[in-house]
Amino acid sequence: MDFRELVNLRQSVRKYSDKPVEKEKTEQLIEAVHIAPSACNSQPWKLIIVNNPELKNKVAKATFSKAISFNKFAVEAPVIAVLVIEKAKLIAQLGGKVKNQEYAQYDIGIAADHFCLQAAELELGTCILGWFDEKKIKKLLNIPKKRKVGLVITLGYPPKDYKLRKKIRKPVEQICGFNTY
């Protein structure tokens, strides 16, 4: 599959079959995150794969509530990946302070993209979640207090009848300029 096919295939999946994710595929996903680029090669992340069903359900339930229920589908996913933001190398931290940028935030975005694109190539579905109860997830997964949960990603096989949706995007002229804004 070429890259254009891959990026068109990747979409946010919000419904999962109960088919488990094979260990070999999980290892490929971990390797995709492992080789992701980062500022100063800091690799400021820790990837936690949650595949124990009981623990996975507890983490999934920390992504929604009675009032905010749009992530309720997370309990269907057989696996949840959690990207924890780790300390970057000193040079990346200093550069970030000087430039007023959070490079580690960008870096986990790149790592998450590698994870999701690799999953799509393996015919797995993903959905990146930014809404979650960080305190609960940190407690459930024994994440140190000084660390921050950056993203949560659901992972699994979409049901056989899951349709590839047409991507609706702004016109290219609205998102790209040459030589000027």
Automatic annotation (TrEMBL):
Instruction: Give the organism, scientific name.
Output: Maribellus comscasis
Q: Where does the Nitroreductase domain lie?
A: 10-157
The answer to whether the entry has keyword Ribosomal protein is no
* Descriptive protein name: NAD(P)H nitroreductase
> Which keywords accompany this UniProt record?
Oxidoreductase
A Gene Ontology molecular-function term?
oxidoreductase activity
The UniProt entry, under Pfam families, shows: Nitroreductase
Q: Which domain of life is it from?
A: Bacteria
Gene3D superfamilies for the chain: NADH Oxidase (3.40.109.10)
| Family classification | Belongs to the nitroreductase family.
Statement: the UniProt record of this protein carries the keyword Oxidoreductase: yes
